[in-house]
């Protein structure tokens, strides 16, 4: 009899994509939609790009034509959206906005160096299995087959984000910072996303009745393999121009004065034009405006901007370079 806990999903031959459905079986790419408006959730199949844009913007997330179309195709074709760009440009926020727009739960898998299938998919609850085994032995149960069957019952299975996403319909699955994971995990993820199913040897195949809406993000700390990118709809997240960034700040922080939002946006745009180690993203623009508003400022001058640079810049070299800029001139150009 295997020891409690057994080989996890990272072991050889233990986990893989489920079998291809036969005739009459609803496969992972079968046409499926979330419940209609009567259940409180929108019908994905009824979406068009304009409807997707409207629903995302209703959550406070502004999108351009390319991203609206990518999200529509993700819903229509059940394909992941691969979002790549610098940190703080709205990649993770897209998944949050999609979950709100679809009235669906958001399930997040945060990738990191060394992540494996047991951390992302499932694992067995070894301490509970061991307690159950001792209780069974104390009760005089000696049937090895019965004990093994009990140990690998579903109640001892610890579900991780990927398995929860396959079993939750509908849902939005965020695989955040896939570039931090290694090649082996990337290949495993590609296999799972190809079929939206997985085989647990002790329990059988788990297949998503409704494929989750999948958003993958990458900060491009390394190149993600072409095989995974080809499976996805790709969208590059660049830094927005002044008008779009100002609109985002105004949408996210409606209580901040219009003048303060305009000045902070202008400062961030000027900082990005410098040779910084880490240019501030939209998230830093929002943080900076929020910090100044918390200080009671309706507008900002050069001295206050320098004093609060830590809200936007996170490296000493960048703050020193920013202090060398004529921030007063930047503010004057915005009509101060």
What is the gyration radius calculated from CA atoms?
Answer: 25 Å
Average per-residue pLDDT, rounded, comes to 85
Q: Biggest sheet, in brief?
A: 5 strands, parallel
Number of helices: 15
Principal-axes shape call: elongated
* Alpha carbon gap, first and last residue: 77 Å
How much strand content do the residues show? 5-15%
Order of the strands making up the biggest sheet: 2-5-8-1-9
The helix content is: 40-55%
SSE topology string: HHEHEHEHHEHEHEEEHEHHHHHH
Structural class: alpha/beta
| Poorly predicted regions | 1-8, 10-42
Number of strands: 9
Question: Can you walk me through this structure?
Answer:
This protein is of the alpha/beta class and 336 residues long. It contains 15 helices and 9 strands. The strands form 3 sheets. A 5-stranded parallel β-sheet has the order 2-5-8-1-9, with helices on both faces. The longest helix has 15 residues, at 258-272. It is elongated and about 85 Å long. Residues 1-8 and 10-42 have low confidence and may be disordered.
């Amino acid at each position: 009899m295997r020891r409690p806990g057994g080989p996890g999903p990272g072991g050889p031959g233990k986990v893989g994509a489920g079998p291809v459905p036969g005739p009459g079986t609803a496969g992972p790419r079968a046409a499926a939609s979330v419940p209609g408006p009567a259940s409180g959730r929108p019908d994905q199949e009824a979406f068009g790009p304009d409807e997707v844009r409207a629903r995302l913007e209703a959550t406070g997330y502004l999108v351009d034509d390319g991203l609206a179309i990518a999200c529509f195709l993700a819903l229509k074709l059940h394909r992941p959206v691969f979002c790549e760009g610098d940190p703080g440009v709205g990649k993770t926020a897209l998944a949050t906005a999609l979950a709100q727009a679809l009235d669906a739960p958001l399930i997040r898998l945060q990738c990191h160096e060394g992540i494996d299938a047991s951390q992302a998919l499932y694992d067995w609850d070894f301490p509970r299995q061991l307690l159950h085994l001792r209780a069974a032995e104390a009760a005089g149960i000696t049937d090895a087959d019965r004990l093994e069957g009990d140990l690998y019952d579903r109640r001892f299975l610890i579900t991780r984000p990927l398995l929860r996403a396959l079993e939750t319909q509908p849902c939005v699955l965020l695989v955040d910072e896939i570039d931090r994971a290694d090649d082996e995990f990337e290949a495993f993820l590609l296999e799972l996303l190809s079929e939206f199913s997985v085989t647990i040897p002790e329990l059988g195949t788990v297949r998503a009745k409704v494929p989750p809406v999948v958003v993958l993000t990458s900060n491009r700390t390394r190149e993600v393999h072409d095989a995974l990118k080809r499976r996805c709809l790709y969208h590059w997240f660049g830094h927005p121009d002044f008008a779009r960034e100002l609109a985002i700040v105004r949408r996210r922080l409606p209580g901040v004065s219009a003048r303060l939002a305009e000045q902070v946006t202008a400062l961030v745009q000027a900082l990005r034009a410098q040779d910084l180690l880490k240019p501030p993203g939209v998230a830093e623009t929002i943080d900076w405006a929020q910090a100044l508003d918390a200080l009671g400022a309706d507008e900002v001058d050069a001295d206050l901007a320098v004093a609060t640079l830590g809200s936007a810049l996170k490296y000493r070299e960048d703050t020193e370079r920013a202090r060398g800029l004529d921030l007063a001139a930047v503010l004057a150009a915005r009509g101060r």
